[in-house]
Design brief:
mainly alpha, Neurolysin, domain 3, binds zinc ion, globular, 3-stranded mixed β-sheet, single chain, 3 strands
């Protein structure tokens, strides 16, 4: 092996160690740390974050990557070595393109913006946050200017989290999806809603936890290389390929909240656990994009976890754990209840069908603001108009309208939302490819068995880590570029049958 390449691997191992230690600190802070630890923890995180940033942008690293260019070019594109150098260079360019001074000014501004948002939102006072949001929009445009090669001002952020995708590639797909979804939601609204009262009986936390762990173990989430703890906002984090953790939270008056959140995070976790162990400590050692990552959580949460096959197997088991709570419920009733579609104001509470409409509203409005077609002062009105036309409901106030999500008040505008819907679209496209390879998957799921599906995902998606960009991976796995068709077919078949459309 090339000597400089070995030097590069040692460099990346150290960088990875620092970033994984940061993850341990963050995990601890979100799970077990007593409140008294806050001040010291913030300082520790800032110190390590600074050391990481220095290493990620060091001239030494830039020179190593430059010197390795001829070596990279002598190797096949998808060899591990060429891929480490290629992805490493992409990360280096990202980290060095934007001046540290700009980011420093932005972080200072966004810290204040976040503080003001935490007051303005409960007070339903958009005017209070408006000047800060206007400044965030200026910062976002300024940030875009560091990427003159990209066409749209949102592309700088989109390509950070979904490399290879842009507004130009995403917008037509979203527009097509919206054309299908708006009438589907409208048709569902005409139908009687399913019964859901039993979901909200008393379900003791310990029993919920045992059941969820039993399911994700069957999925293939490896508890010898992972664990689950409690937190406020569930997430998945990774300390190494041998230690990928998930978190959840329980509500005793809701049997489905923690369960589906657990299935979701386990999907993220299995992706990270399934990466080729040889990539540990290199830039390849993580899922390839926000959208592909989200496709794995949505696949296990929704496509599998909310399917009739899944509940044919698991409902009798759930009923055995909660015999009193579910005494008057059968599998069909439970299946309909957990798939209830109901337009609502709040994105995070949305069901599988309406969720994407929430995301696409944010995607479009962010783009319009960045394009100077929508002024921040007119955002509430534009927001409410889209909720009325797309979901048939009008937010009565901005608190649950354009102020509901933290994203625009604690980060830049444009780029953060599309990953959620890309994940849904891709969950359909990947699942269709898995079914084409193994038509027996649904009958396996009906038996509570997931080895074939999990094995296929590991073989085709997980093991590669970041070696392929999302567009490359989609093409390799499904033989075509990203398309909404499999996902729309999935939604129309499932909900057409559920709501007798
Ligand atoms: Zn997720």
């Amino acid at each position: 092996m090339h000597e400089l390449y070995q030097q590069l691997l040692r460099y990346y191992q150290e960088m990875t160690d620092i970033s994984r230690v940061l993850s341990v600190l963050h995990w601890d802070q979100s799970t077990y740390m007593p409140p008294g630890g806050t001040a010291a923890r913030s300082r520790q995180t800032a110190t390590l974050g600074r050391i990481f940033h220095e290493k990620a942008t060091a001239d030494e690293l830039g020179k190593l990557l430059d010197d390795l260019k001829p070596y990279e070019e002598s190797l096949p594109y998808d060899s591990d070595e060429a891929s480490v150098i290629r992805v490493g260079r992409r990360n280096f360019e990202w980290a060095t393109k934007v001046p540290a001074d700009f980011m420093g000014r932005f972080y200072e501004h966004i810290g204040t913006s976040y503080q003001i948002w935490t007051q303005a939102r409960p007070a339903n006072d958009f005017e209070k946050i408006r000047p800060y949001l206007e400044k965030t929009l200026d910062f976002s445009r300024e940030h875009s200017a560091f990427y003159p090669e990209l066409d749209h001002p949102a592309d700088a952020r989109i390509s950070r989290w979904n490399y290879g995708m842009t507004v130009a590639t995403i917008q037509p797909l979203f527009a097509e999806l919206r054309r299908h979804l708006v009438p589907l939601v409208e048709a569902i609204r005409q139908q009687p809603p399913p019964r859901t009262d039993f979901l909200h009986r008393h379900y003791p936390e310990a029993d919920q936890e045992r059941f969820g762990l039993m399911v994700i173990e069957k999925y293939g989430y490896d508890l010898n290389r992972g664990r689950q703890d409690r937190t406020h906002h569930p997430f998945c984090t990774k300390f190494s390929i041998g230690d990928v953790r998930i978190t959840t939270r329980f509500r005793e008056d809701d049997v489905s909240d923690a369960l589906f959140s657990t299935l979701h995070e386990a999907g993220h976790g299995m992706y990270e656990q399934g990466i080729n162990p040889a990539y540990e400590g290199t830039p390849l050692d993580r899922g390839t994009s926000a959208g592909v990552h989200e496709s794995q959580s949505r696949l296990w949460e929704n496509v599998v976890g909310r399917s009739r096959e899944f509940w044919t197997h698991f409902f009798p088991k759930l009923k055995a754990v909660f015999p009193e709570q579910l005494h008057d419920v059968d599998t069909g009733q439970f299946y309909r209840a957990i798939n209830k579609v109901e337009p609502s104001l709040i994105r995070v509470d949305a069901d599988e069908v309406t969720y994407n409409l929430h995301v696409m509203i944010r995607f479009d409005l962010a783009n319009e603001m960045l394009e100077n077609k929508l002024a921040v002062k007119d955002l509430p009105e534009a927001w409410n108009a889209r909720y009325t036309s797309d979901l048939g409901i009008t937010p009565p106030h901005d608190k649950d309208g354009c102020m509901q999500d933290v994203h625009w008040f604690h980060g830049m505008i444009g780029g953060s939302f599309p990953g959620y819907t890309l994940g849904n679209i891709l969950s359909g496209q990947f699942f269709e490819a898995a079914l084409n390879a193994h038509p027996g998957i649904p009958s396996e799921i009906e038996k509570g068995q997931f080895e074939i599906l999990h094995g296929w995902l590991k073989e085709n998606i997980y093991q590669h880590g970041s070696k392929y960009t999302a567009p490359e991976l989609i093409e390799r796995v499904t033989g075509k570029s990203m398309t909404i068709e499999p996902y729309m077919t999935y939604l129309k078949t499932k909900y057409g049958e559920l709501y007798e459309l």
